Amino acid sequence: MSQTDIIQPAIDGEDSQHQSPARLEQTPSHDQLLSSPMPGDTPTAREARQIRKIAQLEQKLETLEAGRVVKERQTNHYIAKGRAIRRVVALFDNAEDLITENDRRYEEDGSTQDQDRLQLGYVALNVTFPWFQKKAEAMDYDEYCHMLKMLRQGADMARGDDTAKLKSLVAEWVNMDSTPDPRIDADDKHYRGFINDACGKLLCPAELDWNDPNIKAGIRNRSDGYLVTDLSFPAFLYERYSANAQNLEEGLFKGKILVQAYKAVFTSPSSAKDVEADGDGADISANNRRAQRSCTGIKVKKHVAHIIQMKKVTPRSIAYIACQVRFALSSVTSWRSVDGDFDYVQFWRTIVDFFEKPPGRTARRRVEILLEWWTRKVFGRRGRDDISNASKATMSVNALARQREEMADAEFDSD
């Protein structure tokens, strides 16, 4: 036996922990052992396993994508619904403010005028969104916060869209009615406001006469006694843009440009061309109840009032449009709550309180008549839905049905 034969068994019998690094690196890992072909494994079997793994990964990806699509669709839904909030619920208060006030009333007694206004806003919120309270109660906190955030985003987007729309439309209407020289630029607001004679006349406090050179100069110079604040109603709010100093309620909120702006936002810009008639035209709401198709087969876009199922003009929607028109006539280029001495928040509140907090029964009736006038102007004559049950009972169709039943009962009793 050679020396080599004697040494070889000793090397083969060495403990594994004394093996050389080179031999350790050649030892297959646990994962490699699992992934290595089993005895008898064929290429076809390996491909089948890989296909199954790919299918599983694709299914997981589809599930994740479906969840993303659902969440995105839900987000878009809330944003679209939220577009109504600034217009008909609250211009400056968020839904959270209204909800907080409603919750407070379950724990505390008493309220201020501002708190009452918030509570009426909460009522308006639920009238506009009948689903809101039930859905909010069923959500977890994160979902609830997400919904409120998306509603607020939609609300602010709508306000911005309306501001941009009225920027050009108001310029067009003023140019048409007043023929100023130079004409108002539809894209530039720097030459609007009190430096522009046509805009200044509409923005002038109702108690002052813009045609008086001293008053005009005092307003432009912001002299003492001529500061324009939210404590004065602008002339554009009045019928024929003129107020009766002895009866400041007469003609208030009947200004032509106010009605034009309302119709442009809530029905359509084209409907704003006709505001002279007292609601004798076609029933706008009925004509747009469904998205109709024109003769070319193109789907007609639904207007705002139809989308939010609005059938009557509301106080808060008038206040919203009044703020938008005032801003459009001003020289301020970006939306803000305070313009110099004029506070838009207080202006909006003043108009809302005029309608929602009238001092007494007679004043309330005048408000009701004014809102009926607005509804006719915007939506046409739609009195059928407002007929009381008592009035319906006296009409001939119902009266005849009642008489026939009485005669039938009498004949039965006589037999």
Tell me what you see in this structure.
This protein has 415 residues and is mainly α. 59% of the residues lie in helices and 1% in strands. The chain has a two-stranded antiparallel sheet. A hairpin with a 2-residue loop joins strand 1 and strand 2. The longest helix is centred in the first third of the chain and has 40 residues. The chain is globular. The protein starts with a helix and ends with a helix. The N terminus is likely disordered.
Distance between the termini: 140 Å
Rg is 36 Å
Which blocks of ≥5 consecutive residues have pLDDT under 50?
Answer: 1-25, 289-296
The oligomeric status of these chains comes to single chain
Helix content estimate: 55-70%
Residue-averaged pLDDT, rounded? Answer: 84
Report on the biggest sheet: 2 strands, antiparallel
Q: Structural class per helix/strand content?
A: mainly alpha
**How many β-strand runs?**
2
| Secondary-structure element series | HHHHHHHHHHHHHHHEEHHHH
Number of helices: 19
Q: Walk across the major sheet and give the strand order.
A: 1-2
Strand content: under 5%
Shape: globular
